[in-house]
Amino acid sequence: MKEECGVAGIILPEDRSLSNTVAFKLYYALYALQHRGQESTGIMVYDGTSSHSIKGMGLVPDVYNKDSVGCLIGNVGVGHVRYSTSGGSKIENCQPFVLNFKGGTVAIAHNGNLVNAKALKDELECEGRIFISDSDTEVIGHLLVKELIRHKPVESIRNVMRKLVGSYSLVIHINGTLYAVRDPFGFKPLCFGEVDGGYGVFSESVAIDTLNGTLIRDVQPGEVIVFTGDGFESHQIGCEPHPAHCVFEFIYFARPDSVIDGKLVYKVRENIGRELAREHPVDADIVSPVPDSGITSAIGYARESGTKYLEGLMKNRYIGRTFILPGQELRDTAVRLKMNAIHDNVKGKRVVLVDDSIVRGTTSRRIIDMVRRSGASEVHARVGSPAIIAPCYLGIDMATRQELIASYKTIKEVESLINADSLGYLSIDGLMRALECDKNDMCIGCLTGEYPVEIPGENCRKKQMRLDDFNNPEDSRMASGNS
C-alpha cells in the first residue's frame, strides 16, 4: 500500500497580503504532511488580483527553495503533496489545480478518489470542456467553475457535492476566500485550526502543530467551512446517518502524533497492539516491530503481554520509495537496503514480529527470512489489521484481488508462505475496540468486501445518501468564529 495525498490551506488577515508568510507556512505544513505523498507537490498563493504557484515532481525540499517560495506573495494559499491513486505520475496531475474563469480564480487541492470520475468527465467533454490531466481533481474543478458562473460559492459547492460519488477532502480557494470541504461520509481526514491570527486547514493536525497553531476541530462529514481573513462560518451540506472514516488512516497512513476525528493515532495503534496480544498470545523472548508503522503497535503488544520490547530491525530512511530493481536477487537486495536485522538482538530468541498489514506477502517473507538468517529460533508474525481481502476504490493505492494474498489463501497458507512459525491477524471486533467505535462508522470495505458507497460489481453495505439529503446552504449555517 502507498500513502494517499495531503492537502493544506492557509488564510491570514488581509494586512498580510503583501507578505510571503502564507507561502512559507504552506511549505512547512507540506513538509509535515510529506508522509502522505512523495510523488509531487505544489503551492498556490493569491495576492488579491492574481495567483502565483510552484509545482514540481519529487519531495517538498527538492521542489522548493527559499527564493522561489519567497516570491509567492499574498494572504491566502493552497498546498498539496501527492501520491497518485487516480491519474498517472506526471507534472500535469500535480496539484493544486488552478482554473481561471470569467468570475475569477479557483484553486483546488484534493485528497481522495471519485468512483464516478470517468462518467463525469465524459459528460463534461461532451459539453466541450478540455482537460489537461487525467486526475479526478480536475473533474471537480470543471464542475465547480461551471456552477460558479451561475451561483454563489457555497451553493456551487453544494451542487458539485450532489454529483460526486466517492471520497474527497478538499481545500478550495475562490477569489481570496478559503473553503474546506469533506465528503458526507468523511472518508479522508480534514481538520482546521488557528494559525498566526488566521486559519489553516490540513489533512492532519501535525501540520497545525508544526506551525505552532491551535487545533480547533475536525471538519465534519458533509460540512463546508468558509474562511475569510477574520473569521469562519460552517454549513452542513450533506446528511449521512453513519460516517465511513478510512480505517487505514489509523492503522498505517497517518502520523502517530496526529489527532484524527478526535482520536490520537498513537493511542489507537497502542490499543491495536494490546488487542493483538490478547487475541494472539505466544511464548516469546522479545517483541519487535517492522519499522516504522509497526512500532507503536509493537509497544502495545509488549506492554500487554509483558514480553520485552526490543528492536530487531533497523530501517534505512534514505532509500527512496520508487527504488525498483529487476530480478529476484536484486529485489532481495533492495529489501536489505531498506531494512537490516540487528543480529545480536534476535539471535537465539523467539521473536514476535509486529507489522501493520500484509498485502501481497512477498515483503513479509523476505523480512522474516532475514530475521531467521540472523539467528532467531522462532518468528511469530502479528498483524495490526484484519486480513485485507478486497481492493480499495476510495483513495488507497492497493493491490487487486488477485494480488491480495488473504483474498484467496487461508491463514495457515499465508503463514506457510511468509515462513512464520505462527500468524495472527487482528480481528475486526478487536480493531473496533482499539478504535473505541462502531464498525458502522468506519470504512472497512477492504476487510469485508462491502463498501459504504455503490461501486459497480461490488457489494454496498448500506444505501447511498439521496441527493435530496443535501440541505439548502442558506438554511444550514451551523456556527461561526473569528480570530
UniProtKB/TrEMBL annotation:
GO BP, sorted A to Z: 'de novo' IMP biosynthetic process; purine nucleobase biosynthetic process
Sorted UniProt keywords: 4Fe-4S, Glutamine amidotransferase, Glycosyltransferase, Iron, Iron-sulfur, Magnesium, Metal-binding, Purine biosynthesis, Transferase
Cofactor(s) listed: [4Fe-4S] cluster; Mg(2+)
Catalysis: reaction(s): 5-phospho-beta-D-ribosylamine + L-glutamate + diphosphate = 5-phospho-alpha-D-ribose 1-diphosphate + L-glutamine + H2O
EC numbers on record: 2.4.2.14
Binding residue positions for Mg(2+): 293, 355-356
Pathway given in the UniProt record: Purine metabolism; IMP biosynthesis via de novo pathway; N(1)-(5-phospho-D-ribosyl)glycinamide from 5-phospho-alpha-D-ribose 1-diphosphate: step 1/2
Active-site residues (renumbered): 5 (nucleophile)
Keyword Transmembrane helix: no
Cofactor note: Binds 1 [4Fe-4S] cluster per subunit.
Enzyme class: transferase
Occurrences of domain Glutamine amidotransferase type-2 (ranges): 5-230
Molecular function, one GO term: magnesium ion binding
Protein residues bound to [4Fe-4S] cluster: 246, 392, 443, 446
One Pfam family linked to the record: GATase_7
Lyase keyword on record: no
Family: In the C-terminal section; belongs to the purine/pyrimidine phosphoribosyltransferase family.
Biological role stated in the UniProt entry: Catalyzes the formation of phosphoribosylamine from phosphoribosylpyrophosphate (PRPP) and glutamine.
Name used for this protein in its record: Amidophosphoribosyltransferase
Organism of provenance: Methanosarcina flavescens
Gene: purF
